[in-house]
Automatic annotation (TrEMBL):
It comes from the Eukaryota. GO terms for molecular function: kinase activity. This is Dephospho-CoA kinase. SUPFAM superfamilies: P-loop containing nucleoside triphosphate hydrolases (SSF52540). Pfam families: CoaE. InterPro entries: Depp_CoAkinase, P-loop_NTPase. The chain crosses the membrane at residues 202-227.
Amino acid sequence: MKIVGLTGGIACGKSTVSAWLRRQEIAVVDLDEIVRRLQKPRTRVVYELGRSFPGVVDADGCLDRGKLGSLIFNDAAQRRKLNVLMRGHILRAMGLELLGHFLAGTRLVVLDAPLLFETAGLSSICASYVVVGTSSDQQLARLVERDGCDEAAAKAKINAQMPLAAKLQRAHVPVMNLGTVGELEDQLERTVAPALWRRANLWWFLSLPGLFVLWVLVFRGAFLYMLATCLASEEMKCFTDFLDGADADPEPGEA
């Protein structure tokens, strides 16, 4: 099973890329979706957040993401605190989804992870990285439009993340989203999809069905080798017996 990490800067178009991959019937494990499931009302995670960040959970057990966001984007210590609290829950849920694909024999899985490089050990399970980027001006404009905030708030959100340039330096497949959605999708079809599927058939052998096939091939090969060895040994024994008989002295009265 080949795992490819997908990440990028905020408001750069990673979600558009992820949606396009799904339409191509490529399996995607989306950590944002996992977080949304974990943070549904009255869940264990929400109550843990309420205890750690007073005021972000209301009386009905619903998380106020706006309040939580304002806390973490302006305070690096609070971001670290949130990351530590959420990491274990996210990784367990992610592991279960990846296990399902491993058991099913999925050839290619894209791990959609905003904090792919920031989360310890997460990037190490990926065979390669796809990083979605854009220009700084377009990123700022898109974020202002998307979140309905002013430029100062948008810049604070951008600066709270790992620099986009640093992410792009680590990319095996960089994707620059500088135009329309149609142009982005054309780029994905021409360059990204072939790169994702490269050697995916070989990686399939690292799934449960693939490992079973390998085991069968190895067992079959070992069995055939043993059979050939036994046959060769039996033929050699017959040949040596024949030679021993030909070399033996004739019995008295013969000749």
